[in-house]
């Protein structure tokens, strides 16, 4: 950099000037004593060497280079207010040597953090903000602010705060406003969705306050909210109870659904049985109708069905009442007891012309008794 190079050259020039003067004094003293020394000191050579050193120093002091992330405030003896009205932006600038000087301020984004963790914050140790909610609960806030100096307001920052702006403005304003704003919320609100409202409110308030002092706020970050040990335990117990309640409600809902499913299944089954009964009754009704129609055509059909359904093991057959006698069956027991293997049969012919052959069921012989 040019201004740094000139500064180094001016230092070298002054060192060379001092060595040059010392050498002249030493030689003059050896030659002519003190009188000769005085003559040499005020000689033209010493004067020229002095002018070169002073000129390089003045040239180095008159050139100031401002880095892009900086802004310069010019303190001037030539101005009525003691400073130039406009700050110096990035680039190489000329100032009046000995009458003006430049104080540089950063205009890049800076982050200031206050945290409970010992190594996270700007200060070592627990630097969280202790505050109280509207219902008296103690809370501890970890937060960060991202800010920078407004380049156009650098002169105001210099006049009001100079390089003390972090300790004299940024830190105390954040702590005070956070405490004030937290006091507008209850502990439950701070620990719920209202936390976002708290963060937004602090961001807006800090933005306005910073702007009034020449600072630009990029963002306020509410990093963490902690409660006292007793309140944290109470919150945890409440959450556990709420989870248990949710679980019980879920189980009750599942049981209700299961009961409803069983009831629906019972209703469906009953409907199915009713439908089957209706179908069966309808089929029986149709069958009876068909039988009735058949009987209308042939009235002797019922007699035939009657005879057809008689058991084969009967001993006596009753014929219709228009036949005046009862047909006796042969002595089947004696026939079976005689060891006959084939059961006797008998054919009965009624006056109706219906013939039926009967085969009696053999009766087992009793076991001999010892």
**How many β-strand stretches?**
10
> What portion of the residues fall into strands of 2 or more residues?
15-25%
Q: Treating each run of at least 4 consecutive H or I residues as one helix, how many helices?
A: 9
- Structural class per helix/strand content? alpha+beta
Considering the protein shown, what is the CATH homologous superfamily of one domain?
A: Band 7 domain
Helix-strand pattern, N to C?
A: HHEEEEEEEHHHHEHHHEE
- CA-CA gap between termini: 143 Å
CATH class of one domain: Alpha Beta
Shape: rod-shaped
What percent of residues adopt helix (DSSP H or I)?
A: 40-55%
| CATH architecture heading of one domain | 2-Layer Sandwich
**What's the CATH topology name of one domain?**
Tetrahydropterin Synthase, Chain A
Mean pLDDT: 79
Query: Largest sheet, described in full?
Result: 4 strands, antiparallel
Report the C-alpha radius of gyration, rounded: 61 Å
* Uncertain ranges: 325-329, 332-370
Question: Mind explaining what this structure looks like?
Answer:
- With 370 residues, the protein is α+β, with helices and mostly antiparallel strands.
- Among the domains are: 2-103, no CATH class; 110-227, Tetrahydropterin Synthase, Chain A, CATH 3.30.479; 313-333 and 344-358, no CATH class.
- It is 51% helix and 17% strand.
- It has nine helices and ten strands.
- Strands 5, 6, 7 and 8 form a four-stranded antiparallel beta sheet that branches.
- Helix 1 (2-41) runs antiparallel to helix 2 and helix 4 packs antiparallel against helix 6 (194-212).
- The model is unreliable at 325-329 and 332-370 (pLDDT under 50).
């Amino acid at each position: 950099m040019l201004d740094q190079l000139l500064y180094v050259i001016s230092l070298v020039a002054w060192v060379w000037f001092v060595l040059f003067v010392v050498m002249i004094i030493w030689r003059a003293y050896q030659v002519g004593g003190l009188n000769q020394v005085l003559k040499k000191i005020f000689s033209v050579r010493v004067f020229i060497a002095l002018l070169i050193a002073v000129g390089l120093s003045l040239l180095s002091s008159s050139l100031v280079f401002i880095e892009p992330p900086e802004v310069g405030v010019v303190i001037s003896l030539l101005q009525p207010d003691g400073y130039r009205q406009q700050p110096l932006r990035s680039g190489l600038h000329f100032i009046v040597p000995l009458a003006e000087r430049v104080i540089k301020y950063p205009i890049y984004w800076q982050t200031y953090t206050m945290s409970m963790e010992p190594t996270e914050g700007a200060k070592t140790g627990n630097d969280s903000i202790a505050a109280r909610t509207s219902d008296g609960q103690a809370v501890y806030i970890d937060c960060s602010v991202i800010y920078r100096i407004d380049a156009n307001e650098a002169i105001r920052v210099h006049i009001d705060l100079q390089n003390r702006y972090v300790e004299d403005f940024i830190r105390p304003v954040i702590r005070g406003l956070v405490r004030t704003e937290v006091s507008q919320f209850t502990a439950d609100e701070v620990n719920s969705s209202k936390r976002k409202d708290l963060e937004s409110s602090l961001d807006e308030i800090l933005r306005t306050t910073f702007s009034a002092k020449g600072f630009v706020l990029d963002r306020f970050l509410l990093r963490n909210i902690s409660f006292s040990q007793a309140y944290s335990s109470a919150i945890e117990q409440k959450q556990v109870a709420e989870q248990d309640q949710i679980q019980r409600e879920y189980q009750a809902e599942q049981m209700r659904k299961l009961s409803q499913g069983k009831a629906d299944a019972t209703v469906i089954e009953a409907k199915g049985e009713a439908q089957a009964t209706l179908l069966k009754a309808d089929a029986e009704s149709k069958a009876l109708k068909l039988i009735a129609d058949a009987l209308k055509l042939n009235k002797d059909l019922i007699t035939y069905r009657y005879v057809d359904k008689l058991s084969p093991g009967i001993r006596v057959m009753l014929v219709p009442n228009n036949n005046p006698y009862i047909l006796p069956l042969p002595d089947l027991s004696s026939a079976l007891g005689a060891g006959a293997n084939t059961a006797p049969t008998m054919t009965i012919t009624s006056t109706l012309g219906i013939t039926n052959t009967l085969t009696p069921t053999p009766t087992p012989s009793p076991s001999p008794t010892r």
